[in-house]
Amino acid sequence: MSGNTDADVAVVGLGAMGSMTAWQLAASGASVLGFEQYGIAHDRGAAGGESRLFRMAYHEGPEYVPLLRRARELWLELTRDSGRPLFTPTGCLSIGLPGLAPMENVRRSVAEHGLEHEVLGADELAARYPQHRLVDGEIGIVDAAGGMLRPELSVLSAVEQARARGARLHERTPVRAIEPRDDGATVVTDEGRYRVRRVVVAAGPWASRLVPDLAITVKPIVLTWFVPDTVQDYLPDRFPAFIRDTDGVHLFGCPVLDGVSVKCGFADVWDPLDGPESLTRDLPEPALRPLTEAVRRFLPGLHPDPIRHGVYMDGYTADRTALVGALPDAPSVVVLAGFSGHGFKLAPVFGRVAADLALDGGTPMDVARMDPTRFAPAP
User: Fold this and answer.
1) What SS3 string covers the chain?
2) What is the pLDDT of residue 269?
3) Is the N or C terminus of the chain more exposed, i.e. has fewer CB atoms within 10 Å?
4) pLDDT averaged over consecutive 10-residue blocks of the chain (379 residues)?
5) Which domains does the chain have, with CATH numbers?
């Protein structure tokens, strides 16, 4: 670090991506400043809901598998170093008709990358996992490397690891502006101005407030918890994490972790928000009906009225692919944004990517398709 700077790298936002970035930067020996507008492991962004799926056989495409392999290694490392149950390997069950694009991507993922898996025909799937009501012809693919993550605990653990390595992380400190310079950048807060060599913007739904031209839309993520008729049938050893696409319904969920309920989520039903300040934490009962009807149809062993729900949010891009990289007109600013509801499982590897970009100007991981300026109009 040069003498006229306050740190090598500042990280703006200490949620899923920012906490992992701070951890990876500090583990690399960099001096790190971090800024979080709320408390650590808050529940207003994308990293909430008690559990999240980890999938290696990826519905979004086999090109993600190298990132997911490295992410899994880092999840296990953080689990070991923190001494907390952050990652629980249960496998992940994908359900759908064989010809559906998501199922084809799962097949390509396992074929191209040699992933350990099982393909279950309709009869075997129904016999092994009777908790799921199937549509004629549906199959299951069990991804042996899949499992469950604990989001809030993971963010807290990454922050603790970063602090243990010397990172100076400021809670309840909103960043008002980022001012790029030829030799670095200045981070502006109400408490002061901080000069750094690089800035990583990992502000989730708020990212476009600091980098105005980012092409992201803020959307709610709604998660719900349902009580099973027989809890034992939905424990992790009998009911793995799952994701299914049936008749246009995209439903995912996790087994019982709290001794009481199964968590389910639903995609792309709720309208975009005007901005992060428009987040509504409590939804009226009619707004939950698409999800409760899906649970009633596909998981008949669950009481179809949720005992509770939580509303979170994320930044979405038009192609549901993240925005990752340095800004061409401000190379001292690295962006991590637009993870479109499927980024948490990848958070440690994106933290590593951001650390590489901030410290070395490049990364060995293939993130070229995530160019943060790809939606910019042609000059």
Assistant:
1) CCCCCCEEEEEECCCHHHHHHHHHHHHCCCCEEEECCCCCCCCCCCCCCCCEEECCCCCCCHHHHHHHHHHHHHHHHHHHHHCCCCEECCCEEEEECCCCHHHHHHHHHHHHHCCCEEEECHHHHHHHCCCCCCCCCCEEEEECCCEEECHHHHHHHHHHHHHHCCCEEECCCCEEEEEEECCEEEEEECCCEEEEEEEEECCHHHHHHHCCCCCCEEEEEEEEEECECCHHHHCCCCCCEEEEEECCEEEEEECCCCCCCEEEEECCCCCCCCCHHHCCCCCCHHHHHHHHHHHHHHCCCECCCCCEEEEEEEEECCCCCCEEEEECCEEEEEEEECCCCCCHHHHHHHHHHHHHHHHHCCCCCCCHHHCCCCCCCCC
2) 72
3) C
4) 81 98 98 98 90 96 98 98 96 97 97 98 98 97 97 98 98 98 96 98 96 93 96 97 95 96 86 92 90 96 95 95 96 97 97 98 97 84
5) 7-46+152-212+319-370 (3.50.50.60), 91-148+217-316 (3.30.9.10)
Task: Report pLDDT for 2.
Answer: 45
Do 120 and 141 contact (CB within 8 A), yes or no?
Answer: yes
* pLDDT value of residue 46: 87
Q: Residue 304 burial (CB < 10 Å; 0-12/13-18/19+)?
A: middle
